[in-house]
## 1
Amino acid sequence: MKLAELAKAVGGEARGDAEREIRGVAQAGDVRDDEATFVDDPKYLPLLAGRNPAAVFVRAFLPELHAPQIVVAEPRFAAIRASAAFVADPVFAPGVDPRAVVEPGAVVDPTATVMALAYVGAGATVGPHAVLAPQVFVGPEAAIGAHAVLHPGVRVGARCRIRARVVCWHNVSIGSDGLGFVRIGDQHVKIPQKGAVVVEDDVEIGANTCIDRATFGRTVIGAGTKIDNLVQIGHNCLIGKRVLIVAQVGLSGSVTVGDDAVLAAASGVVPHVRIGRGSVVGAKSGVHKDVPDGAMVAGYPAKDHMAWKRETAALKHLPEAIRALQRLEKRVEELETKDKA
Amino acid sequence: MKLAELAKAVGGEARGDAEREIRGVAQAGDVRDDEATFVDDPKYLPLLAGRNPAAVFVRAFLPELHAPQIVVAEPRFAAIRASAAFVADPVFAPGVDPRAVVEPGAVVDPTATVMALAYVGAGATVGPHAVLAPQVFVGPEAAIGAHAVLHPGVRVGARCRIRARVVCWHNVSIGSDGLGFVRIGDQHVKIPQKGAVVVEDDVEIGANTCIDRATFGRTVIGAGTKIDNLVQIGHNCLIGKRVLIVAQVGLSGSVTVGDDAVLAAASGVVPHVRIGRGSVVGAKSGVHKDVPDGAMVAGYPAKDHMAWKRETAALKHLPEAIRALQRLEKRVEELETKDKA
Amino acid sequence: MKLAELAKAVGGEARGDAEREIRGVAQAGDVRDDEATFVDDPKYLPLLAGRNPAAVFVRAFLPELHAPQIVVAEPRFAAIRASAAFVADPVFAPGVDPRAVVEPGAVVDPTATVMALAYVGAGATVGPHAVLAPQVFVGPEAAIGAHAVLHPGVRVGARCRIRARVVCWHNVSIGSDGLGFVRIGDQHVKIPQKGAVVVEDDVEIGANTCIDRATFGRTVIGAGTKIDNLVQIGHNCLIGKRVLIVAQVGLSGSVTVGDDAVLAAASGVVPHVRIGRGSVVGAKSGVHKDVPDGAMVAGYPAKDHMAWKRETAALKHLPEAIRALQRLEKRVEELETKDKA
């Protein structure tokens, strides 16, 4: 693709060598001579030192930048759109690959794709246009919705339900048993985990994330919720709609999360707590009690975000404050001594 | 199932519409019209607002609850028992599926089940009544004990030993190499990892958990220990019996954990530390030194649990304390000035 | 192997029963009667209580130790070398197993090994002497370098590049989409993730670790970097050479890590931050801003390691300091009262 074509594709204005060939898009710190990149703030120009990009998306022409430029309102989004123009979406041929295993009693829609080495258990259903990549496991009586995409190594346990347009990335585990044991004498006796998991429409789940089946009833992931990699969601959690759960978050059993909440990376929640609608839980924080709707909490144990900030800022002064206190104690002692004298 | 039948099945007393059909069990916040649920404390009744459960297990009849009830001593356990009555345990036919791969020299007991797309390496053994689900990997010379169940995607590396009745959930990794490198000049040179992992009887391991093989000798998980999802156990760890390790815990190499200890969620332990018998490590804490038998520790770095609680509580007062200290310094200064005058 | 043979193999001096048979190596706390172990400091001798090892590698002869001994300069490394002598490296026969799936248009070098149940997508390439274990997935147009080893369950997404001698452990995910969404109205709208991942020469990646593909361009793992288990690396991260990333670390999107940096276990970094060359990020810390070259940071939010240590030490005194402050306030009040009187 040439500069003018690319500018046209993103609705921008080309400035510079119109003949140079552009073969892809990359971030500024890693861009090659045949790739476009973007700079949405001149302060990032040093990232291009020693680099010779074929085109740079910019907000306004940058005379100090010696490279072909494309001026657009949103350089980052232009780069994203350009990238999509270079890399086609995958196309999946419908049908069951003969090297896949579909057990008797399973029902696969004729428009669905079941690739080689995928496994579909007895009584399971696979909906229209769903895609099961190689090495996917769909357990007995599980259901995969229309247009769902299960990437390689996804495991969907028995009787779990994956609704329409759900995307699960590599090695997602849905429907493993939760940690349900009762100590009786010198044994941990297992509590049967007979519930299931329901993943509602338009959910996306990141690689190696685990969602445990309910002890009874259902662990539910609400419609439109997006979950990152390596997240743990315990048995009987009820996650609302459009929730964002960032990487390495851990939710214990029976946690409820309201619609539109955000759980930042590596935060955790103890069992039976309710995270309010539209609330935000800070990264690496640990929540021990209910979070009100719309609240923002941080720290461990988690508290109001501003209170946590004040404490964190004050902590910097603690070593000096303790020394100051000791000095002050001496001064008061002196005053007292004089006073008595 | 009808109310009277269900009451009989759990040894409870039916109160209300005896003819309604009950088809399953769910938690209060998600129960449907044809399902039973439980309320073990009237304070949870609001969870049933707008819901119309077919039966509710209760400790004592609740007149304010307009739903069929079953009075039992332990409502939650009644719900668990009822759930098991609705969902049968899976039954596995013995034998090796022709679409599984069993390499020459492997020995599979005729009562064991090896499902389609499972792989058993050369020299491996699979014991009586063991179940290898689809897409399981058992490495060369590994051994799987009687009645063990390996769920889809479990990886058992070469020479590792899984004893009787062990359950491993989706994508568990047993026997990967630990992070063993020595820096020599400008390289990280690999230390050969030639040991193995031994998982003793009655251990259960959650989805996507990783247990590294020993550098030499054995990483050991003691009998009856239960491990949750996404846990990391480093090379040469020696975990005792009946230990509970909750989700996202990370144990560095050569950690020793005494019998009956509990490691709460997302806690971590540095290398070569000993966690005492029956001790408890708090959630998200980081342990830097040995924990005595029976101790309870929390925080980062982990310390006595009560000391940590006191510090955490005091921290709330720190911003105000620093201001108070500054005010006090001024007052002392004034007193000193007057004193001099 | 007999004591004298083993001593010779590690260049040490045998002391004690030369005829006892040694069949392996284990750590002191778990050693059996037919195994060797090591003690590099007499303080670890109690670990051998009640044990009867066939040989013990020691720095200097220990008269109080009643077991055959081998005196060597580095007992631990002698044990590692001995262990390698007992366990042979695996040998892989070249060729594609007929039970593997290689899609049309993929190119597998004749010296490479593709084991049963592995999958190689259309247009992918597998280099000389590379090994794909059972149940590995190599996506369309991905490239696997010479002598790379992908252990069971590794997933390499479309167009990703794995260079020479890279080792990926069980269930590693390379090339899943990152958490890239834009909130528009009441939806999280997906940002297409069309970039790839490049893993340079001599990288080793631990089990169940996830590396997201770039939004555009490349997520890069630099040559010689070693990554532990259960690590999350977000889209567009640029990781330098010879970096060490310990278990359960989480890097958000667009993080840059300089050469030779060390990220200790369970630490985390927010998006767009730069971790300096040769810097060290402490375990469980959370980095919110750039870390200078060679710096050592700890805590949450992460700060200079020594400042964090001082604050942490001071925190122990906080509960008492607050009480002391209150007592002092009273004393000053008394002085003020007297002063006024």
## 2
Amino acid sequence: MSEPHANARAGDLAFLSGPRGHSLTVKLTPGERVQSMHGVIQHEDIIGREWGTQISTHLGTIFTILQPALDDLLRDIERASQVIYPKDIGYILLNLGVGPGARVIEAGTGSGALTVALAHTVGEHGHVYSYETRDKAQALARQNLQHLGLDARVTLHLRDIGEGFFEQNIPAIFLDLPNPEDYLAQVRAALQPGGFFGCILPTTNQVSKALEALKQHAFGFVEVSELMHRYYKASAGRLRPADTMVAHTGFLIFARRLAEGLHAER
Amino acid sequence: MSEPHANARAGDLAFLSGPRGHSLTVKLTPGERVQSMHGVIQHEDIIGREWGTQISTHLGTIFTILQPALDDLLRDIERASQVIYPKDIGYILLNLGVGPGARVIEAGTGSGALTVALAHTVGEHGHVYSYETRDKAQALARQNLQHLGLDARVTLHLRDIGEGFFEQNIPAIFLDLPNPEDYLAQVRAALQPGGFFGCILPTTNQVSKALEALKQHAFGFVEVSELMHRYYKASAGRLRPADTMVAHTGFLIFARRLAEGLHAER
Amino acid sequence: MSEPHANARAGDLAFLSGPRGHSLTVKLTPGERVQSMHGVIQHEDIIGREWGTQISTHLGTIFTILQPALDDLLRDIERASQVIYPKDIGYILLNLGVGPGARVIEAGTGSGALTVALAHTVGEHGHVYSYETRDKAQALARQNLQHLGLDARVTLHLRDIGEGFFEQNIPAIFLDLPNPEDYLAQVRAALQPGGFFGCILPTTNQVSKALEALKQHAFGFVEVSELMHRYYKASAGRLRPADTMVAHTGFLIFARRLAEGLHAER
Amino acid sequence: MSEPHANARAGDLAFLSGPRGHSLTVKLTPGERVQSMHGVIQHEDIIGREWGTQISTHLGTIFTILQPALDDLLRDIERASQVIYPKDIGYILLNLGVGPGARVIEAGTGSGALTVALAHTVGEHGHVYSYETRDKAQALARQNLQHLGLDARVTLHLRDIGEGFFEQNIPAIFLDLPNPEDYLAQVRAALQPGGFFGCILPTTNQVSKALEALKQHAFGFVEVSELMHRYYKASAGRLRPADTMVAHTGFLIFARRLAEGLHAER
């Protein structure tokens, strides 16, 4: 994820968008070539070109070249497994108070979609600590982070957080696990006083359990919400919502660590 | 917006949350005091305290003290005027590809809510260029940015963007104006090849006009969507959506600058 | 609720719509008059007029006169207490298989909004049996039904349904009570084989309890859903959703009575 | 659509629900048999059985038998073509003031889903006048109505409504056509003073055109809305919304015919 610039350079990630939604992301490397069902493109034919222009395969199929957006990269990761959606990620980043230079913990790592978004957002002066118990998932996340050049900003722990976090005094912790209620003591131990907690849960039963536990562990300013994202057909003369949409990804819970014994509400 | 830390320090912004939703944000300054209908708190009684603890006014009313989240600060700004909502801001940041070190243009500045979010996200090595024609709005935005210590990251221009932007080769531009279709030539002139464009519009008629103009000005990968944000009552035993919700803030449009003459769709 | 016709007649319900959303419904009676903050209208000045025309009070304020829609009447009842919303009522009627000539049970009666809709829908050859334990609520419902001339189609029982329903072999039963799971044995005893069951519940905890009980009592084809109703500003040139909306009324559950021991799913 | 009763009779419509969502609706006729990929069931083996019980094919596959709900029948019709959804139909019936004994006009007939719902709701003493220009669509609708025994309540006209409606002084008219703005003079000519008008339109551009025309033709109390219907997984211990949902069917517009020259708003 290099800085945005006007012309494609060696080492850049390039997003190639072809006919009928066919797209792929490649790292531009002199001497390599893109193979697809639509034909071949030499990386060297892309390097030096202006972003937003078009290029043809040897079979004459046209692809448009762009620097990928974070959103495009997340969608690529998304295809590999059940991950957190872009609509939720933007809101999560905002509600965890995460910005350049921030330190943040997440568990579990999964395929690394949120890890990528966090690493992007904390920048080179921040750091992400990400916990996972399944080594295969961790390996996939590591690969995704390396591919995007974000691995130096992330420490990947292979560890059950029931045994506690290694870090202390961290400003923000996010759990993407089915049972956050089982880890709130560990979260308190690692979280700064007043720090930000968040989690995402698919079922209402899980939300009820998490709410009960948050109360018992002196978290306050608890907020539960969900985001429904509806796309429209982008036609000036026939503007209308798309026929179908994602109805549910998860319920988002955010809270603040208060001093023991407090239960303040917003 | 200082780094998160465990104890309140002089110079910090402090969010004080009292009974029945009464809250306020102050910059902690030795010698000053908070006056409210619930009584007085000396800033010096807050400084040094752990975040997430409680403090009493001279009348015995209890307030909880926290470092404000970006979301809290945006809500404060929001009260002053019609601004972009947090639910939309997170998604806008993600879709403009904005992160640490980024340069980005927005117009109009308004009361500066999105300006604050952008300045927070680009960090001290990035920069925001924000255009506004009404000097009163600009003054309010400047005040909000100074209050949050973000003014060094933002250049506020008092200028009609119909006359063009001062900057060139900028990776991302966002317009919060009723008629983006009138400024797309200027946007192209300032935007990097392949760069990110976004806007927010309340009515479907405006969306139709913008879509028509985006096509004529060779923007591609156009996406139109809306986010519906539904809060829940955070009660473990009586979990249910809130009674009412915001039904609409605006339709979000995102697009990429393509080379002249192209109309690629995602 | 007389048949729709072209001109206002003595005995008709008339909906009078005045300035700034001020409206009222009256039964047209020679010799009576409408008193409002906007002045006086004689009923005799309305009788004989075409529906959809306008009439002036003695102070010169203009009112438009219409035969009330069922929806208008339900909104009037709605103001008096927490009732089932029109958006839900239409879907409930459809899913209970209720039409002209049908017999249907509901509990509790409440202020009678759903009772009115059911009585309207079953017509003069059908019948509604409505149970309530609070005599004040029942009295209000009776008054609403009489006002609309629908009381002959409804039997109002003052009885705790825990003691069972008086009727048997009824094709459809709807419960608007907080704890439907406590009455499913009674529902089975009164409901026709294969008959329609429905209920509305505000919290997810209640829905979980009801689902568990429906399974135990051999109800199948269980459907849980919610309807979100979003109004638009009806402006041709500035079309957009309203600013706020009702976020939640209740979760709707529908099921069919199966033979003992069966758990078929749709 | 015979009256609900406890046991299956010859002549009844029977809804047979088998494994993995496989279902079909048949009219019970002595001597006939149901053929499916799961085996054969003799109609005579169903006749006399209690609804809500189960029956086995000659191959041992189990089907549950029920009297179909109107909703089930509409879903069957729905499969054949683009029709109005149940979520919208309930609300349409309520807002047109349609009940037992009512007379109502609709255009176009399409495959007859709304026609069926209207005919069911007006009962044997009401009547539906339905206009269509395509004879194939009309033939399909006629077949659907006959299959359900509702054809005596419906007059099917093969006619372009631009030439006007045959009926006059009708209390309610619903248009399911792409260009209702072209027929409002004809609607006024057929509609009772104060009568109910409704239409459904997929795009915002169409809504804007219809709103403009309604104003010009002295319709008032105009309401524009949409219904979003979200299903839940009916699991007591894992309650959550379904993964995907229908995002859009159409915008619903309702209005009342006022006297010429009036523009009253609710």
## 3
Amino acid sequence: MGGSILVVGSVAFDSVKTPFGEVDDILGGSATYFSVASSYFAPVRVVAVVGDDFEDRHIAVFRKHQIDIEGLKRAEGRTFRWKGEYGYELNECRTLDTQLNVFAAFNPVIPEAYRTSEYVFLGNIDPDLQLTVLEQIQRPRIVACDTMNFWIQGKPDAVKRTLAHVDILIINDGETRMLANEPNLVRAASKIMDMGPETLIVKRGEYGVLMFNGKSIFGAPAFPLEEVFDPTGAGDSFAGGFMGALAHASDVNERVFRRSIIYGSVMASFNVEQFSLNRLTNLTRSEIDQRFSQFKALTHFEEF
Amino acid sequence: MGGSILVVGSVAFDSVKTPFGEVDDILGGSATYFSVASSYFAPVRVVAVVGDDFEDRHIAVFRKHQIDIEGLKRAEGRTFRWKGEYGYELNECRTLDTQLNVFAAFNPVIPEAYRTSEYVFLGNIDPDLQLTVLEQIQRPRIVACDTMNFWIQGKPDAVKRTLAHVDILIINDGETRMLANEPNLVRAASKIMDMGPETLIVKRGEYGVLMFNGKSIFGAPAFPLEEVFDPTGAGDSFAGGFMGALAHASDVNERVFRRSIIYGSVMASFNVEQFSLNRLTNLTRSEIDQRFSQFKALTHFEEF
């Protein structure tokens, strides 16, 4: 196993409706999807908060994957709840209800043992909190970060303060255009890389991923699936697979980055095949490597 | 040069407005973009109709690229005119005006010399007319075809009759879902391949292309450009580059198909850099090959 990964984000109960079924109060949240996906590649530590309704069977999911949950704090009250609905256009989600509950007062305290983590993923939380996390980490090798429209519009200065300390920003294309205030993605990426991150990864849902890394651009399609059941957590599973593969590698370079993008895409593709973490918690390493090879077959072409 | 290509489609005058500029009555049309793009790879013949307002300077564009225009019929009246507008989201176009003019009575007659063409591209015209074209061709090696929502909804039976005689269908993702009446793209592709075409190529604009070829799937991103000036004709330039590369190759197989998809993407990427055919008519073969190599750099990753 490679370097250790720290993820700070949400652990939640999701209620999700898709054209293929409906589930209530199932385990979700950015830190959950991220940590399970990355656990196949490297040791993972979680900082998040849950309520007193969080049961042993939920804890068991983390334990099954040897995820360190010393930083999973239990607070009085209910766990963060989210309810959403997808139509046949699975790229688009309608949020029906958000109850922050204990997540509203989330103030991430990094346990002593976590402070030497080499790889840090700042899930989509208040950019000011993301910065306080970084202040508690000693000398991370790679800091990756997610954010969203809500923070880009509501706290643009805080987002930019945090980005100055981030190596890799992982957001979607709408967020990229909004953050850079620039409709062209290539120019937007260039503006964002001037804000701090050396690398920008743009998630495009069913269309795949673009990675801007200095002057280099890498593009990969999403894996075409016959069954897309529930897109919830795809972005966090991607980030988890990506950071996991990065931490597992012995080096940080363009070649490792590209391979890690594909491992991220692999984990996202498994995640959407079933509701919640049902597929992600039941994978073998050989299934993961097999799909990696299928990605090679999907994208390979020859010049002569 | 490889096998000869026949294209049947529209030649038009376009008026286009984008956030970057505006032009009136410039040369356009599916057969125009297709034939110029494919002319870099193989001999091309055009069957289309223009009005008495079609000038020598328009003819000169075809001549410059050694495109055979024996089948470019001149009719009394005005040439087909289209007017459209793009916003910053260049994937979406608003049609402001369509004047079919001489195109309304277009009845493609294939000149004797064209009837042995090995590669045939049926541009987006009435599916009944597409079928009459095929009836005039002796033994084509590959028949590729475009169509659109208007025909899929308005003449579904005629579309299916034509598809039974088509090897490769080249349409966008919305058309794919509509034609198959199936929201999942992989399942939709499978249904469409049951209708006749062995190969389905799904154009996804700025997100690239998916090719379904029997059990194999190939995905390629679009080339990320800093300057996207005018997306008009991108799909036809793609089809032209694809069919051109196919005709240029000595063989028809998955490897050749994939390489041709990249050449199609190369031609589409050049086309959108300037208004009308301005970029497409001023390319060198070495510029084309250089961008092909850039596509390799864009998509390449290694397993170990």
